[in-house]
Design goal:
Blueprint: E1 3-8, H1 13-24, E2 31-38, E3 41-48, H2 51-59, E4 67-73, E5 88-89, E6 95-103, H3 106-115, H4 126-139, H5 145-155, E7 158-166, E8 172-178, E9 183-186, E10 191-194, E11 206-209, E12 214-219, E13 222-227, E14 239-240, H6 256-272, E15 276-277, E16 282-283, H7 292-297, E17 300-305, H8 307-324, E18 328-332, H9 333-336, E19 347-353, H10 359-370, E20 374-379, H11 385-389, E21 392-395, H12 408-427, H13 432-443, H14 445-454, H15 456-466, E22 471-476, H16 481-495, E23 498-503, E24 520-524, H17 531-543, E25 547-552, H18 557-562, E26 565-568, H19 577-595
Parallel strand pairs: 17-18, 17-19, 19-20, 20-21, 22-23, 22-24, 24-25, 25-26
Antiparallel strand pairs: 1-4, 1-10, 2-3, 2-4, 5-6, 6-7, 7-8, 8-12, 9-10, 9-11, 11-14, 12-13, 15-16
Helix pairs in contact: 1-2, 3-4, 4-5, 6-12, 6-14, 6-19, 8-12, 8-16, 12-19, 15-19, 16-19
The structure holds fructose -6-phosphate.
């Protein structure tokens, strides 16, 4: 949430910062801004709207400099307007700062500063820190700019990644991290600071992931990293990033979301590459080997996550309980972190997170660690905070996910959970044949996805007939109930249609009251043990005039006669079905959003990577 970038080096910072902002725009897109430093003068431009709006303002200006900072915002404090956009400047206009995170005690500091006569121009929490730095710097002869920033950071409570400039020190950039991600890019005579590596990789592949409490000074072509408070130098290792530019561009696709839906032709196998062992009917998961004794002896497992990743966790519960026979509790990270869950050294806590930066999931893992649990991460972004904070983990390797609505990350998470459940299960007595049966289905998943993508026209027909609905219901049972939840989430976030997911049999206990001839009801109904029960639910909806859309793996005469639309998923293992059926739901949501002319990659009010509570 919010993207920040800084540049210092021998190139023109303007195109670097603007392109960087475009790469970071998925993190927030309600306003953006840039500040540049040259010859002891600070110039800045900021504006409500997309980065393209900022770009036109910058193009029409003569703004220039030899280093700079920029920001794309997802509003927390203060409406999205020009004034609340970052960078924020102090009252002298000499200090500029961009921030990702929330300063929780900003009101206390603001009141204090106002009493001393400081006048604030914005409604943001961020302006408070820049005015505080200014107060400290200009009223204490002994305090350098660097030490004023350190001192100010010690007064604030909350999460931040900040990058700051001061006109009095024209060749210096200062940055710090506490809770919000920050990456330092180390190039040839040039340095970059950004919320993630995506704006950096076209300039340098060498990065340093900053940890909490770290403070960076880039001065005269050198960088140093130290502890914010103690100033003790921290030695860090350079990480080389392998990401290709194509992976972070949408190519011929109109939207990242559609590209990422199509990526699933290979991303699910990328997740499984080198990890399937058909011969022994098991999986090889190198990332968790050292913690296998703890996992095998665990008395309970918690899975904690947010949003789509939480839905993957619900599927994981079915899988792990089925194969590994250990109780699994799935909790929203935002709830888990604040309650007194029963956690001890026999507990495994798994955080699932595409970004690896979600504030609540990260905090949940930190809490679990404090309480002595073994922590595992299922993350997509290598080098992310959760990946580094957990004891061990399994990367999903789905490739960068830029579309705000998660698609390929979800199917990769479910794939990892299948592999994990089988891995533990096989060690606990699940037969080789059961393992082989599951692995054989996983091996054909690429072809299944290709077949699903061939049925896009059928899905478009459903979208055309139902896109005018104001409400949608998604129903599934067992392992397919979370698929229903995920289908509903996809629809509401990108098309703004109200949608709910329910266990199919629960419909009778309330939601059935909503059904009329305007209500599309999506049934996720594979021909499994509960098929005939779900069929009865379909009958109940039909009897009340609802529009029935059935997603199944085998069409029979009852389904045909009761459904207004049937979308077919290639026959597969019942535990692989959630992967393939969810792709149909992703396409359905996408096509409806296209028909409604919605901003698919940047849905209103949303942003990817929720780094605030
Ligand atoms: C929905 C979506 C969100 C994320 C949630 C967690 O399409 O993308 O619900 O799943 O914000 O994000 P991660 O997985 O990065 O922790």
């Amino acid at each position: 949430m919010c993207g920040i970038i800084g540049y210092i080096g021998n190139k023109d910072p303007v195109p670097i910062l603007l392109k960087g902002l475009k790469r970071l725009e998925y993190r927030g897109y309600d306003s953006s801004g840039i500040a540049l430093l040259q010859d002891e003068k600070l110039a800045h431009i900021k504006r409500a709207g997309k980065v393209s709006d900022l770009q036109s303002l910058v193009d029409d200006s003569s703004i220039h400099g030899n280093c700079g900072i920029a920001h794309t915002r997802w509003a927390t404090h203060g409406i999205p307007n020009d004034i609340n956009a970052h960078p924020h400047l102090d009252h002298t206009g000499n200090i500029a700062l961009v921030h990702n995170g929330i300063f929780e005690n900003y009101e206390t500091i603001k009141t204090l500063l106002e009493k001393r006569g400081v006048q604030f121009t914005s409604d943001t929490d961020t302006e408070v820190i820049v005015q505080l730095i200014s107060e400290l710097y200009y009223n204490n002869e002994k305090l350098t700019f660097e030490n004023s920033v350190r001192a100010a950071l010690q007064e604030v409570v909350g999460a931040y990644g900040i990058v700051a400039l001061c006109a009095d020190e024209p060749n210096k950039i200062i940055a710090a991290r506490m809770g919000s991600p920050l990456v330092l890019g180390v190039g040839e005579g040039e340095y970059f600071l950004a919320s993630d590596a995506s704006p950096i990789i076209e300039h340098t592949r060498n990065v340093i992931y900053l940890d909490d409490d770290e403070f960076v000074i880039i001065d005269n072509e050198e960088y140093s990293i130290s502890n914010i408070q103690s100033k003790k130098i921290v030695s860090k290792t350079l990480t080389r990033i392998d990401l290709s530019i194509e992976e972070i561009e949408k190519g011929e696709f109109p939207h990242f979301m559609l590209k990422e839906i199509h990526d699933q032709k290979h991303s699910i196998s990328d997740t499984m590459r080198g990890r399937l062992n058909l011969f022994d009917g098991t999986t090889n998961l190198g990332g968790i080997v050292n913690y296998l004794p703890n996992i095998l002896s665990a008395s309970r497992i918690y899975i904690t996550a947010c949003g789509t990743s939480w839905h993957a966790g619900l599927i994981g519960k079915h899988l792990i309980e089925e194969y590994a026979r250990v109780p699994v509790h799935v909790e929203y990270a935002s709830e888990f972190r604040y309650r007194n869950a029963i956690i001890d050294p026999n507990t495994i806590v798994i955080a699932i997170s595409q970004s690896g930066e979600t504030a609540d999931s990260l905090a949940a893992i930190k809490k679990a660690k404090e309480l002595g649990a073994t922590t595992l991460g299922i993350c997509n972004v290598v080098g992310s905070s959760i990946a580094r904070e957990t004891d061990a983990g399994i990367f999903t390797h789905a490739g960068p996910e830029i579309g705000v609505a998660s698609t390929k990350a979800f199917t990769a998470q479910v794939t990892v959970l299948i592999m994990l459940a089988l891995n533990i299960g096989r060690k606990k007595g699940v037969s080789k044949d059961r393992g082989k049966e599951l692995i054989s289905s996983l091996k054909t998943v690429d072809q299944d996805v290709i077949n699903i993508l061939r049925s896009i026209e059928d899905i478009k027909e459903v979208a055309k007939s139902t896109s005018m609905a104001n409400h949608y219901l998604y129903l599934g049972r067992g392992i397919n109930f979370p698929v229903a939840l995920e289908g509903a989430l996809k629809l509401k976030e990108i098309s703004y249609i109200h949608a709910e997911g329910y266990p199919a049999a629960e419909m009778k206990h309330g939601p059935i009251a909503l059904i009329d001839e305007k209500m599309p009801v999506v049934f996720i109904a594979p021909q499994d043990d509960t098929f005939y029960k779900v069929l009865s639910n379909i009958e109940e909806v039909k009897a009340r005039g609802g529009i029935v859309i059935t997603i199944t793996d085998k069409i029979n005469s009852s389904i045909k006669s009761l459904s207004d639309f049937v979308l077919l998923v290639p026959k597969t293992h019942k535990y692989v079905f959630p992967i393939t059926s969810s792709i149909i739901l992703q396409i359905l949501a996408y096509e409806i959003a296209v028909l409604k002319n919605c901003e698919i990659d940047q849905p209103r009010n949303l942003a990817k990577s929720v780094t605030v509570e």
